[in-house]
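Researcher: Let's try something more involved. This one mixes different molecule types, so please make sure each is placed in the same coordinate frame as the others.
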Amino acid sequence: MTPITNLLTFFALVVTLVLVWRQSWRGRVRLFVVQSLLLGALAAAVGVLAHRPALMLVAVVFVLVKTWLIPGVLRRMAAGTPPRPVRPGRSAGIPLLVAGALVVLAYVVMLPVSGLGGSALPTRGAMPLAFAMALIGLFVCVTGRDALGQVTGFLVFENAIFALGVVATYGLPGLVEAGVFLEVLVVVLLMEGVVVQMRREHDSLELDRLQELRG
Amino acid sequence: MSTPVLLATPLAAAALLALVPGGRLGVLIHTLAAAGTLACGASVAVGVVRGDTVTALDGLLRVDALSAWMIAVIVVVAGLAAAEAPRYAREGSPRVFYPLFHLMVFTMLLAVCTDDVGVMWVGVEGTTLASVFLVNFERTRASLEAAYKYLLICSVGIAIAFAGTVLVYYAEALRQHGVVEHTALQGLRWSALLALAPALSPRVLQLAFVFLVVGYGTKAGLAPMHTWLPDAHSEAPAPVSALMSGVLLSIGAYAILRFKPIVDAAAGPGFAGRVLITLGVLSLAVAATFLWNPGNYKRMLAYSSVEHIGLVGLGLGFGGALGISGALLHVANHGLAKSVVFLLAGRIRAAYGTVELAGVSGLLRALPMTGRGFLLAVLALLGLPPFGLFTSEVMIFAAGFRTGHVAATAVGLVLLVVAFGGLLRAAHGMLFGPPPGTGAPSTGWFGALPMAAALLALVLTGIAWPPGLDAALELATRAVLP
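Model: All components are placed in one shared frame. Result:
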């Protein structure tokens, strides 16, 4: 099981890094779909190899929500946004460098924890990778210059925590997973409502325009 | 009356209110639902304190004395807010306002009634989702910005708390066999976790606690994760502000309190306490700084909430029976005082037409009843006797000295005095001075009754504890003490 889970998580991390580099929102949504597919495959693989039928079901729902429902909402949200919201001349060099540093940080934090108690957990090698994805997602979210960028970062972060749950515990109880999917979906739908109003009021999604509240 | 009924009442009301058109029928259902929730909550809480912990739905719901304490605070604050709600629902769409209001009450009750740490997370996250539209109820640019920040920051925060919850599951999975392979997790019960805590890995739990504090601390409004709070609390309609400031923040603190004894048992007592004391002092510092320069009185009250949640954090961090019961009593007192003061701020805004401090003066003469209530509630928030906040603050700081955190306690006291001065100065400007020329509409005494009752209750928790309060507080504290 170890090679498969490590490989799938590693690919998902690579996709996340490419997402940091990509500037157009279309490309980012596509990369988010790819990441979700990989993580869905990860959950299914763990489900099969560890004989957890419930986890396989979770994987199916995950793929459905993350590659079909949520990207649909994201595209509706972005409709009419120029594909490159970022002004030209801004390179992705520094963000990529930060993302690389975050991968190192993830290993520093997670290695002592994932190897505990002579843990024979076959998936433990993937824990730092999943955690690195989470940190990068958080970074994308915090540094996003418009609402779309921030939502994408949040979704990447959320995906990574799902992956962490899969590799660290072989899937959380179904009730909790169901609650999580529902909540993510509602967050994105609420965000769509907010974004629609934001575009009507400000004619843009750039967060520089949000300056009513200070102090 | 059982716990499922308590949860079903606001949920059913929310569904029903989404179906019926607004108008009188809506107000009637809203009133009945609020009264029903209050009655069920009181009955469950009293039953638990008199008798014993109750469980339902195969142990998924478990109400111990600590849950009962929180239920009491939730239903009382929700009742106060519900009494004022119809004035505000009329301004916009009642079919949006009432269902979301009751949904929010439901999610808060779910978060404190469940024994499963995963379901608790779902409940806390649900409170955010239910209240986003309420924050943006007035649909202005400012409220839109507040709703956006609120949704994004709290969703990210709560996702961080989820990462912490995952790590707790991991710790439990590790304990079982060193490998996860052989056991399928069937939910993670808090009561089971507490019993197993000494066997859990200290390193994993320390890491988990950092995530949990950052995550639930975001919901609680602890600095430096408080940045969404002043916006959301100042832009929401008054009853929603009252609910959010009065009790929603405390639910974040409640979640942290649930995990603290587990981390203490696994990783030694010092760690969690130090984290909470640091954040508590930081919150006091942020609030004290802002309170000297507020431009808007609703923001001022929101920052006062940061101050009080910082005090709760200090109490939980100092720990011991005195610290925890002080923090719990402070949660209840602050819930009463802050909801009253936000509801009155809503009336002030309706009369003066502004939320700017500069635009409000002569409140005591212009609106005698609202003004006096506001004066009393602000005095309570300042922590002056005979109000209950004085008692709980004394308990928290006494716990600090007693547990040997002298430096943190001293700094906390200084910051408290600074915040006191700032809030007093601003409130003085509002209450005295020349009243506005226009005659403000006078409000009937009937509508002021719930708030007067809340202020009276605050005096009682300050000078003469009603029978049973002592026992309830002690039982609630014992639920999270080893």
